[in-house]
From TrEMBL:
GO-annotated molecular function: hexosyltransferase activity
The keyword Glycosyltransferase is annotated on this UniProt entry: yes
Name of the protein this chain belongs to: Glycosyl transferase
Any one GO biological process: carbohydrate derivative biosynthetic process
Keyword Glycosyltransferase appears in the UniProt entry: yes
Domain of life: Bacteria
Domain Glycosyltransferase subfamily 4-like N-terminal: 26-189
Glycosyl transferase family domain boundaries: 215-353
Amino acid sequence: MRVGLVCPHASPGEPRLAPVPETHEHVTRVATELSVRGHDVRLYEPEGNASGGSFTVERVPVEAPSAAPVSRLTSHVASFGRWLADRWTREWRPDVVHGHFWVGGLAAATAVRSTSIPVVQTFHSLAAEQRRHLGSAYAGPGERATLERALGRAVDQAVAYSGDEADELTRMGLPRANVTVVPPGVDTELFHPEGDAQPRAGRPRILAVGLDAGHGQDDVIRALRLVADAELVVVGRGARHAEARRLQELAASVGLGDRVRIVDGVAEHELPAWYRSADVVACAPAHSGAARVALEAMACAVPVVGYAVGPTGECVVDKVTGRLVTPGDVRELGNGLRRLTTDGTERFAYANAAVDRVRVRYTWERTAAGLERVYERAVDSRRAA
């Protein structure tokens, strides 16, 4: 099958379109896995991104929307879509197009509107949900929610990370039959229990990963007050110096400055050692997003205490691979963290169950197979129509 992936994201280190991090890495891994399974895959993205491996990267010769302020993103959709339409008319024509994030989906839908090419869409994050949970911290364009609803009506199939996201999409007007839950995968060759660990002092260590809006590290810092003698290390992929300073100031303001350490600029290959150094990983996202942190921790045999929301609430099995608590309940979060930092027997049992669960249900091979089935349904529905 010829699969066109449309992703408007910049490469790591450049300004990003999405408030959810690592989307570009997710898309490139999808492209790799689909290529390994024998599909002809082309990834379309703005100029300046990293080259593909087993798949083809097509540079879009328009002003990169990833470099534009979020308030002007929609102005780039038309030129992006026109270039794609011309490419697919004159050269290589995909059997199915998979749009990522709302701008990528709009460009894909624009490009195929006079053709019979089906469109599959992964939103990665939704404006309506982010507005509910982030409030004034939401920085997306005002028209985004309206455009996402229109996009949902235009695509043939939508991919959700979790049942919660699928419900959100149906509330936006998408038919439930056209929404399929395909959880993200985790790289089990990189994230596994064996290997080096970051050094630590004698006290228990809680790890939190992510320095972008929505990760919920404020709640984790406040929950630390209920966990005597433990340290909290918050690591961030990429440089987020301003957020790192803000969190350190928050820790100092609640009397925990000496027990909270913020480390930003951590590279992907360095993360497994950080996970392995921890007794427990805290996941307290403000909105559903993806479950990447929880899955990576579980793959490294580290139990998770997290909010029972979105993909995290589905990949973590309460009292089997970790503890799930009520979203927003800082006291319950702190109690769960305290229990796992002090009960070694429970922690050991959860750790072993976590590794097994990832290897059975959350591999990239399983994710690619799920996407294949979605693509086939989209193609079959267009043929029937």
